[in-house]
């Protein structure tokens, strides 16, 4: 375990610079495929730390990769830095107080995610240089996790093909090895085209695209009764066809998110939703154009990697929060409901602990909670290469994901402590893989067994490209 102690010291030696990086990214929140400033900050840090840098990974201008070391296995550390719309919030304030500007905010903690991942990669690089051991570490700066599926596009382009194992993390309420459960997810647009007419004088001449959207909604609502219970279907109306009720709407557009626990299940459900859309078009004598915007695979677990990461957490113990951290977390909890807090405990299978605003334990791997599952493009990486993910406490227990409360806590000392802890867990796990050929072989065998019956198929069709956004003039 001496290597773990050494790598943790290397993390501590450079943590201040990466805490500052996290805070800078927090202060420039950019949503999917617009992360030019955040990516530039990470690229500059890669160059400053001596990595070999590759920009525009998979043709995405806000994706970057830095590599260090020679020979040996290739260990990838995955980072993110995209924000969310509508979650602007002043830091360190336990009440809604949006900042001036575009309204974006780091309401999922990706400012911390990317900075900790890059800190872990830097510590591994420094260890490889000091010891002369063979091995390579790569930091992947990945944009657009929030609905943009950048890692899916990157996986489709072969960005991870020569990687031996991938490691990542996510800010959370509790510290634990991720249970590797997520939903495969397709975001699909349905654009209906009909014929406009005077809604009073000549309604019989119109063919309403909005009627088609509404009939599709009815059909999908009936479909929900006849899909697996853990599937999810939700939608957002992108274009209602106009604001004039006396005009039959000639165009209307709706976006559906279709989720399933497996790629095959999602592909089958996609087809059923498309049939409902075509039926709605037939009933209204309109036309429907169906296009996939993005899609991600479900996560695959990897038992050897998860056990290795758990050993790192157990040796480190819980994140060392102090009384000031707990005092501010308690203020955040005052903005939450009892249900929010109880829900967090329910998810991980622990009994509710009163007067415990921040996680004070490492959750055991064998603890079973109630699954509450979302989606992530890390899933696509996990189908291509053995992958493991940590969840590390950075915010108050009960804090909902994608909330102003997450943004408010994103620059606090507690968040920095969780971020540094995550870097130590990832770096220690990476060193185990570099130094233990048997562990890496077991991880590969586990991955091969999970994909043997169903090889990976990227859920994004080849003709669909990432929705890249223009570079700002001042970048």
Main attributes of the structure:
four-stranded antiparallel beta sheet, globular, 40% helix, 11 strands, 475 residues, alpha/beta
Describe what this molecule looks like in 3D.
The protein has about 475 residues and is an alpha/beta fold. Helix content is about 40%, strand content about 15%. The chain has 13 helices and eleven strands. The protein has a seven-stranded mixed β-sheet with strand order 1-2-4-3-5-11-6, sandwiched between helices. A four-stranded antiparallel β-sheet has the order 8-9-7-10.
Quick take:
The protein is α/β, with parallel strands linked by helices and 475 residues long. Helices cover 40% and strands 17% of the residues. The protein has helices at 2-26, 36-48, 110-131, 150-156, 209-223, 263-284, 303-316, 323-333, 338-348, 378-384, 404-409, 413-435, 437-451, and strands spanning 52-55, 64-70, 74-80, 135-142, 165-172, 176-177, 184-193, 232-239, 251-260, 287-296, 387-393.
